[in-house]
Write a structure and sequence with these properties.
- By secondary structure, the chain is mainly alpha-helical.
- It has a single domain, classed as ADP-ribosylation/Crystallin J1 (ADP-ribosylglycohydrolase fold, Orthogonal Bundle), CATH 1.10.4080.10.
- Helices cover 58% and strands 2% of the residues.
- The chain is built from 14 helices and 2 strands, in the order H-H-E-H-H-H-H-H-H-H-H-H-H-H-H-E.
- The protein is globular.
- The structure holds magnesium ion.
Length: 305
């Protein structure tokens, strides 16, 4: 593949990988790892359950699409427009499968959206201690929009801004910055060793598989699980299965791994059943392409003073 095609394959992989991981993980979210037998060893399928039809994803992808829609419509990053889309999602089911209010919504996210409705501007250094994984589960559109037009630092800064909208915490911002830099580097062609060295230079993450079972939604844990899946397997499918088998916050773990591995191996390397069976598959590809083709992606307005 030529460079331009390669980048497009990675961008599509990052966004579709996010949605695939979300949709695979959603039916088994917070089941104990020992109970995760619904994942077939050989041919891992999407599953249907009482909450969701086959291939349908949750808040991770819904919020990612809110971000994508806003970046494309605003031709850059506009805090207020992004938050209005999050409000429309939360209150009116914008970007949800059935047009109803989302079935999944993180505690911190719900609080931040509620606070935005009361007071859109955030003054000073009003950070919280809690650091949920909501900031990285939806990140792909921000990275893709910047890939061709911004350097790694500007991209990471915008990623951090997008985290701050709902996860105004030092830890969430730190992990989001590193996650953004890793995604950017992968798209530039960094190999796994370079990625591992980079992460090691930035932070300590738990890479022992035995300690990754049944974890909650802490952003550092989710990042560790996603990295584990990328580093210890040589293809999208096997890493995804390993990530899902840890149990815990499976849809978000899957969505975060899906972004890393989708960017690393590319869209074409995702199982056809997954990349074509995921809800809105064609639209996801189209959105990734449109984000990648943006002429510029400046910060237009932020609500942080
Ligand atoms: Mg979810």
């Amino acid at each position: 593949m030529r460079n331009k095609e390669k980048l497009q394959d990675k961008a599509r992989g990052m966004l579709v990988g996010l949605a695939v991981g979300d949709a695979l993980g959603a039916p088994i979210e917070f089941l104990p790892a020992s109970a995760i037998s619904v994942i077939d060893d050989e041919i891992p399928h999407f599953h249907e359950n009482s909450r969701l039809p086959k291939g349908v994803w949750t808040d991770d992808t819904e919020m990612a699409l809110c971000l994508a829609d806003s970046l494309l419509a605003s031709k850059g990053y506009d805090s207020y427009d992004i938050m209005m889309k999050f409000v429309a999602w939360c209150d009116n089911g914008y970007r949800t499968y059935d047009g109803k209010s989302p079935m999944d919504i993180g505690v911190q996210t719900a609080r931040a959206i509620g606070e935005f409705k009361d007071e859109p501007v955030i003054f000073g250094d009003d950070t919280t201690e809690s650091a949920g994984n909501g900031a990285i589960m939806r990140l792909a559109p921000v990275i893709i929009a910047n890939l061709g037009v911004s350097d790694i630092d500007a991209t990471a800064q915008m990623a951090v801004l997008s985290a701050r909208e709902t996860h105004n915490s030092k830890t969430a911002e730190m992990v989001t910055r590193i996650f953004a830099e890793v995604l950017y580097k992968i798209c530039q062609g960094d190999d796994k060793k370079a990625v591992a060295d980079f992460v090691d230079s930035k932070m300590e993450v738990e890479k022992d598989g035995n300690k990754l079972y049944n974890l909650g939604g802490y952003i550092v844990d989710t990042f560790a699980i996603a990295l584990f899946g990328l580093m210890n397997f040589d293809n999208f499918k096997d890493g995804m299965l390993a990530v899902l088998r840890f149990g815990g916050d499976t849809d978000t773990n899957g969505a975060c791994y899906g972004q890393l591995a989708g960017a690393y191996y590319g869209y074409e390397a995702i199982l056809e059943e997954w990349r074509e069976g995921v809800y809105l598959s064609d639209e996801l590809v189209k959105i990734a392409d449109e984000l990648l083709e943006m002429d510029e992606c400046p910060v237009i307005r932020t609500r942080f003073r």
